[in-house]
Design a protein that fits this description.
The chain is mostly helical. The longest helix is centred in the N-terminal third of the chain and has 41 residues. The termini are far apart. Helix 2 crosses helix 3. The protein folds into three domains: 42 residues; 80 residues, His-Me finger endonuclease fold; 32 residues, no CATH class.
């Protein structure tokens, strides 16, 4: 009886292998055509209208936001909970100022994360995020003297665009006097 089960198993395995080979050949023969067909389908007005409607929906906005977070390297155990927190947060968790929606402004909503590990920290305003990011990277704020020196160099470099490196060395040498 054991021999019969083994024979049946080997027969099924052989059928499975043949099926895999057939599918692989079909894939190899038709993959380019399938990609072309999908690309053409995406160009139809019907599909474009559907995508426009989807992107405007709450599900589309959520999907785009989470995809962006993942592309930026933000790591979270539960992106749905993170998105819910994002939507519900109205004040900066650092300075407690009311944040604005959208992509512009000093107090726009920002998802703060550690750039080395990618781990989410909290939701803060853009101003606090810049300060925290500079502190993480060890960036030292420019002194007023350095700031003015850089502005003078930039104006000078605009008037003499060629050989900027030699120009910068000369400018630094002149400004040290």
């Amino acid at each position: 009886m054991k021999n019969k089960e083994e024979q049946e198993y080997l027969k099924l395995k052989e059928q499975n292998d043949k099926h895999k080979q057939k599918c692989k050949k079909y894939y190899q023969d038709n993959h380019e055509a399938a990609l072309q067909k999908q690309a053409e389908a995406r160009q139809t007005e019907e599909h474009k209208a559907y995508m426009k409607e989807f992107r405007a929906s709450e599900a589309g906005k959520k999907s785009a936001r989470i995809s962006n977070w993942k592309q930026w390297g933000i790591i979270s155990d539960d992106y749905d909970a993170l998105y819910t927190k994002w939507k519900e947060t109205t004040h900066c968790e650092e300075c407690n100022i009311e944040m604005v929606e959208g992509n512009e402004g000093k107090y726009k909503k920002t998802l703060d994360h550690d750039h080395k590990t990618g781990v989410f920290r909290n939701i803060i305003c853009c101003s606090c995020n810049v300060k925290r990011g500079n502190n993480d990277r060890g960036v030292v704020r420019q002194t007023d003297n350095d700031y003015n020196l850089n502005r003078k160099y930039k104006r000078w470099a605009d008037n003499f665009p060629r050989e900027k490196w030699a120009l910068k060395k000369a400018f630094i040498a002149i400004s040290q006097f």
